[in-house]
Design a protein that fits this description.
This protein has about 190 residues and is α+β, with helices and mostly antiparallel strands. The protein has five helices and twelve strands. The protein has a six-stranded mixed beta sheet with strand order 3-6-7-9-10-12, with helices on both faces. A two-stranded antiparallel ribbon has the order 1-2.
Length: about 190
Amino acid sequence: MRYPNNLVKKYTSEVNYKNRGMNLEDDLNSTNKYYFTENIAIIYKKPTPITIVKVDYKSREDAVIKEAYFKTPSTTDYNGVYKGKYIDFEAKETINNKYFPLRNIHKHQIEHLRKVLDHGGIAFLIIRFTKLNETYFIEAGKFIQFVDNGKRQSVPIDYIKENGYLLHEKYNPRLDYLKIIDNIYFKEDKYEKH
């Protein structure tokens, strides 16, 4: 670009994808805050259970955890109540655009989701394919059915598309997964699968 006095500035158009939007956890926390504020549902992010072993106390405000370990294996990311039903779900992201690797979810998390279903709760996964910028809701029962088949180490995106629901990003709520739950469990809103 030429400026007055023959000053020339060169610009490079380097695309930086780092932090180009909210991550899945931020989107879900924003959505859950909206649900809570509007008195639609009460859904919380579960804290990771850790035991602190060593802390560096420079001052009370500047305390730094130097050593800690996981007290017990964590279950899933979120739980709460909606229309009198217990809700429990796991949120995962993958950079892969063809499949969701099963190594991204722990066996004890799958067993936890299975137990929630056994007790009549609503259990599901929300999976984001970050390179595609697509986020899907899949019922835990359908996900577990695929895992129990045991034939693959990953879930193909085609299976998730066929058995799940694409979550469209909005301003508020950011990822309206309760609309899908209404369609599946309460037969209210009709939510388009793809």
